[in-house]
Amino acid sequence: MRKLCFIFPILGLALSPSSFAAEKFKTDQGAAIITPVNHATLVVEWGGKTIYVDPVGQPAWYKSFPKPDLVLLTHVHGDHYREAVLTTVVGPKTRIIAPPVLVDLLNADLKAKAVPLANGATTDKVGFKLEAVASYNTTPPRKRFHPKGQGNGYVLNLAGTRIYISGDTEGTPEMRVLKDIDVAFLCMNLPYTMDVAAAAAAVKDFKPKIVYPYHSRGQDTAKFKTLVGTAAEVRLRNWYP
Asked: Which of 16, 27, 32, 180 fits a 20 to 30 Å CA distance from 51?
């Protein structure tokens, strides 16, 4: 049975460069705590595991967090993957999940920790079910930015709570048919992904309970919230302090 996902701020938790507190989601096996870090980077803590998503920026940003058990990389662009930062933040037991094209680029030490996960594939070998959702551009002028097959979004199935992290994408058919998403982190910026109107249209199709605009520098996220209307609860946060 799908559970309602409650969310509220946690004060005083894990400092990051973002200007808002981490937030807490109920699952069937304890709380999932998500801390936005910056732009497209966030940290998920659940079930004794720490998961970094697209860790870039300053290594100091991550000092308040445990070393990651798992790193999820969405694609090769520099605002999502930096080898020098990744080398600094991983620990001896860290595993890395990434699209095959990105795994091929990793140095030998990082590649030894990595498992490729292609579009549409799933794995349950990370302590929960993880689904890779194709992320790519669909409009002809933008297809050169994110070709199909090279990037992943991810759905984390955390004991009955489903969290979708889009990566860089437009409103693809694969996104629009997602089901039972409790929380979505959805990109929107031009020219690389989609505008707020396209993002809102996608939300109306896959109907997450809660959606956070992220990867949204310079976009009118208040307009996005208006366009979504009652289709989902839109949570606006400052990813660019």
From this structure: 180
Domains and CATH numbers, the chain: 7-234 (3.60.15.10)
Enter the DSSP assignment of 204: H
Q: In this structure, what token pair is assigned to residue 232?
A: 């989902």
DSSP 109-121: HHHTTEEE--TT-
Beta-bridge partner residues of 122: 131
Q: State residue 12 phi and psi, 5-degree precision.
A: 75, 15
| Element spanning 7, H or E | strand 7-10
**In angstroms, rounded to a whole number, what is the distance separating the alpha carbons of residues 37 and 43?**
7
Specify the residue for token string 């990793």. 106
The pTM assigned to this predicted structure is 0.90
Classify the C-alpha dihedral 119-73-3-201 as positive or negative: negative
